[in-house]
C-alpha cells in the first residue's frame, strides 16, 4: 500500500476509538426507531455524518414530519461549508472528478486531521492519498460498526437505559466544541429553550422536532448577538 | 417505533445524503470563483454546533415540565453533569459515554442494592 495512504490510515486509529462507540449507539438507535438494516447501512454510507444520522433517527422515532427531519439533518451538516472552504485551496491541483470524490469523505475528523497534516509541510505527504487513507478507513469502520450496533441493538435489555447513551454522545461532542463565551451563551440559551419547547410540543401536540429547530435558532441568535455585543 | 412508511424513510435518507454531499463539495468545487465563506455566514455557522447539540442534549437529561424544582431532580441530569465534567476534562467520547452510563446505573440501581 502507498506510504502516504498508510500514514492516513494509521492516523485514523485514534479517531476510530472515539467513533466506534458512536457508531454502535447509532446502530442501536436506528434499530430502536424501526429502520431496516439496509436503511441503517445506507445512512452511514451515504450521509456519513454521525450527528446528523443520530438526530435523523431520533426524529424518525419521534414521528416528526418529513420536512422537519430533512431540514434538521441538513442544518446539522451546514458546518461542513467551512471545512469545504478551508480545505479547497489544497485540492486545486486535482481535476474535477478527483475533487468530486474527495469531497465525499469530508467529515469533521478527516478535515481536522488533514488540515493539520497539510500544515506540517516538512513531511510533504501526497495530500490526496493521505486524505483518502483517513477517509476510507473511517468510512469502512463507521459503516461496519453501525451494522454491528444494529444487530446488537435487539439483544440489549431495556432496563439498562442504553438510549441514555444518545444524549451522552451529543454531550461528548458539545463540550469540547465550546471555545468561547458567546458559544457558552448560545448553548445555554438553546438548552433552556429546548426544554421549554419540548414541553410545549408535547402539551399542545405541535409537530415533533419543531422544538429542536426553534431552540437551535434561538441559540444561534443568542450566540451571534453576544459576539457582536462583545466586539462593540 | 416510527409510523413512517419504508419509502418515507428512504426519501429522508436520500435527500439528506445528497444535500450533505453538496455541502461538502460546495467550495471544493467552486474554488477559484468563490473562495471565502462570507463573514456574516461564518459567524452564524460558528454557533450551529453548540446550539444544535445543546438542544439535543437538554431534553434527554430531564423530563420537560413547568415545575423546575421537580424537573432538576433527575438521575439523568446528575449523570449528565458527571459526563459533562469528563467530556470537559478528557474530550473523549468513549470515556464520556462509559462514565455517564455508569453514573446513571449507580443512581438507578445503587439504592436498591444498598437498602
From TrEMBL, chain A:
Domain of life according to the entry: Archaea
The UniProt record lists the keyword Iron: no
Cellular location(s): Cell membrane
GO cellular component, one term: plasma membrane
Transmembrane domains' residue ranges: 12-38, 59-81, 129-154, 160-178, 185-202
GO biological process, one term: L-valine transmembrane transport
Bilayer topology: Multi-pass membrane protein
Keyword Transmembrane: yes
Keywords: Cell membrane, Membrane, Transmembrane, Transmembrane helix, Transport
Pfam families for this protein: AzlC (PF03591)
Family: Belongs to the AzlC family.
Protein name stated in the entry: 4-azaleucine resistance probable transporter AzlC
The organism's taxonomic lineage, starting at the top: Archaea, Methanobacteriati, Methanobacteriota, Stenosarchaea group, Halobacteria
TrEMBL record, chain B:
Annotated keywords: Membrane, Transmembrane, Transmembrane helix
TM annotation in the entry: 6-31, 43-62, 93-114
Cross-referenced InterPro entries: Brnchd-chn_aa_trnsp_AzlD
Pfam families in UniProt: AzlD
Protein name as it appears in the record: Branched-chain amino acid transport
Organism, scientific name: Natrinema limicola JCM 13563
Amino acid at each position: 500500500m502507498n506510504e502516504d495512504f498508510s500514514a492516513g490510515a494509521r492516523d485514523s486509529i485514534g479517531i476510530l476509538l472515539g467513533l466506534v462507540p458512536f457508531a454502535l449507539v447509532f446502530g442501536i438507535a436506528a434499530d430502536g426507531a424501526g429502520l431496516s438494516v439496509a436503511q441503517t447501512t445506507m445512512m452511514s454510507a451515504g450521509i456519513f455524518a454521525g450527528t446528523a444520522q443520530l438526530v435523523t433517527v431520533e426524529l424518525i422515532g419521534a414521528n416528526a414530519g418529513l420536512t422537519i427531519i430533512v431540514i434538521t439533518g441538513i442544518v446539522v451538516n451546514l458546518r461542513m461549508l467551512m471545512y469545504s472552504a478551508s480545505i479547497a485551496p489544497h485540492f486545486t491541483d486535482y481535476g474535477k472528478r478527483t475533487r468530486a470524490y474527495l469531497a465525499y469523505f469530508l467529515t469533521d475528523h478527516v478535515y481536522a486531521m488533514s488540515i493539520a497534516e497539510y500544515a506540517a509541510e516538512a513531511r510533504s505527504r501526497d495530500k490526496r492519498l493521505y486524505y483518502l487513507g483517513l477517509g476510507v478507513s473511517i468510512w469502512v469502520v463507521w459503516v461496519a460498526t453501525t451494522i454491528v450496533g444494529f444487530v446488537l441493538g435487539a439483544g440489549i435489555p431495556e432496563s439498562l437505559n442504553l438510549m441514555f447513551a444518545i444524549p451522552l454522545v451529543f454531550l461528548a461532542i458539545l463540550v469540547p466544541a465550546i471555545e468561547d463565551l458567546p458559544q457558552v451563551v448560545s448553548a445555554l440559551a438553546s438548552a433552556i429553550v429546548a426544554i421549554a419547547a419540548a414541553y410545549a410540543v408535547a402539551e399542545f401536540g405541535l409537530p415533533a422536532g419543531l422544538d429542536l429547530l426553534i431552540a437551535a435558532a434561538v441559540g444561534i441568535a443568542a450566540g451571534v448577538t453576544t459576539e457582536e455585543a462583545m466586539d462593540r | 417505533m416510527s409510523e413512517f412508511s419504508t419509502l418515507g424513510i428512504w426519501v429522508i435518507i436520500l435527500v439528506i445524503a445528497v444535500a450533505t454531499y453538496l455541502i461538502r463539495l460546495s467550495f471544493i468545487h467552486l474554488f477559484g470563483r468563490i473562495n471565502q465563506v462570507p463573514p456574516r455566514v461564518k459567524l452564524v455557522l460558528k454557533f450551529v454546533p453548540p446550539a444544535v447539540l445543546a438542544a439535543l442534549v437538554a431534553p434527554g437529561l430531564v423530563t420537560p415540565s413547568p415545575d423546575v424544582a421537580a424537573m432538576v431532580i433527575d438521575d439523568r441530569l446528575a449523570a449528565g453533569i458527571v459526563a459533562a465534567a469528563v467530556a470537559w476534562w478528557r474530550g473523549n467520547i468513549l470515556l464520556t459515554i462509559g462514565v455517564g452510563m455508569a453514573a446513571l446505573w449507580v443512581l438507578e440501581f445503587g439504592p436498591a442494592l444498598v437498602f
